């Protein structure tokens, strides 16, 4: 479907039109979800080049392209390139959308995830907390993205062996997820699993087994 759309847009609008860039972007998203990373990067880059040429260097759609490429780099383990892409996205977001916008929060969140993968826990915590504060202010206290922020902060605490703080964050995430997503959602299972892991490292094995069974 996306390729059919692309062919029409190329024929009617030409090769340098924002709608053509969107087609390349959408094809890249599908390739990414299929795990076809090289094809995804190729599509995202085609989209980015059109957006830079047509929309300029400070447009939210350009920030979107940088973000998508950054996510790919993270999955490839190219962490420095990932941070570079997410920072480019962040700077555009700050300049165009302001400091309290969900897209800016997403950039902080993504940078935090890369820092976590690099075991730069202090930097990761700083980024996730910035993301959380924006999300709380803009989205409210019962939004899945807020739950994701609590969850990732909990994971950082866990890797720092700060188990009490990790448990607090994971429980906050779990309560939101249960309220918003219901009792049978993969993210709820993810929360139970992570709480179980914290209990395990605290030596609370009965509670750990209970949580892991709920996740299972």
From TrEMBL:
Location within or outside the cell: Cytoplasm, Cytoskeleton
Family as reported in the entry's similarity comment: Belongs to the kinesin light chain family.
One Pfam family hit: TPR_12
CC terms in the record's Gene Ontology section: kinesin complex; microtubule
First-listed, main subcellular location of the protein, grouped into a coarse class: cytoplasm
Keyword Transcription found: no
Function as written in the Swiss-Prot or TrEMBL entry: Kinesin is a microtubule-associated force-producing protein that play a role in organelle transport.
Lineage: Eukaryota, Metazoa, Placozoa, Uniplacotomia, Trichoplacea
Keyword Cytoplasm: yes
Mapped TPR repeat ranges: 21-54, 63-96, 105-138, 147-180
InterPro entries the record matches: TPR-like_helical_dom_sf (IPR011990), TPR_rpt (IPR019734)
Segments forming a coiled coil: none
Highest rank taxon of the organism: Eukaryota
PANTHER family: AAA+ ATPASE DOMAIN-CONTAINING PROTEIN, TETRATRICOPEPTIDE REPEAT PROTEIN (AFU_ORTHOLOGUE AFUA_6G03870)
Protein name: Kinesin light chain
Subunit structure: Oligomeric complex composed of two heavy chains and two light chains.
Originating species: Trichoplax adhaerens (Trichoplax reptans)
Alphabetical UniProt keywords: Cytoplasm, Cytoskeleton, Microtubule, Motor protein, Repeat, TPR repeat
């Amino acid at each position: 479907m996306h390729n059919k759309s692309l062919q029409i847009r190329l024929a009617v609008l030409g090769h340098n039109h924002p709608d053509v860039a969107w087609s390349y972007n959408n094809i890249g998203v599908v390739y990414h979800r299929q795990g076809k990373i090289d094809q995804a990067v190729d599509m995202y880059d085609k989209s980015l080049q059109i957006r830079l040429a047509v929309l300029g260097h400070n447009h939210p759609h350009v920030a979107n392209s940088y973000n998508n490429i950054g996510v790919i780099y993270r999955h490839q383990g190219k962490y420095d390139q990932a941070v570079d892409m997410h920072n480019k996205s962040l700077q555009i977001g700050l300049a165009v959308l302001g400091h309290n916008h969900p897209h800016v929060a997403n950039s902080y969140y993504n940078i935090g995830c890369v820092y976590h993968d690099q075991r730069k826990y202090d930097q990761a915590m700083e980024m996730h907390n910035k993301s959380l504060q924006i999300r709380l202010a803009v989205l409210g206290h019962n939004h899945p993205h807020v739950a994701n922020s609590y969850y990732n902060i909990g994971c950082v605490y866990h890797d720092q062996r700060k188990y009490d703080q990790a448990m607090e964050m994971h429980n906050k995430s779990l309560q939101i997820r249960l309220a918003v997503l219901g009792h049978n959602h993969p993210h709820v299972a993810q929360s139970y699993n992570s709480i179980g892991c914290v209990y395990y490292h605290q030596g609370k094995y009965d509670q750990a087994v209970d949580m892991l069974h709920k996740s299972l």
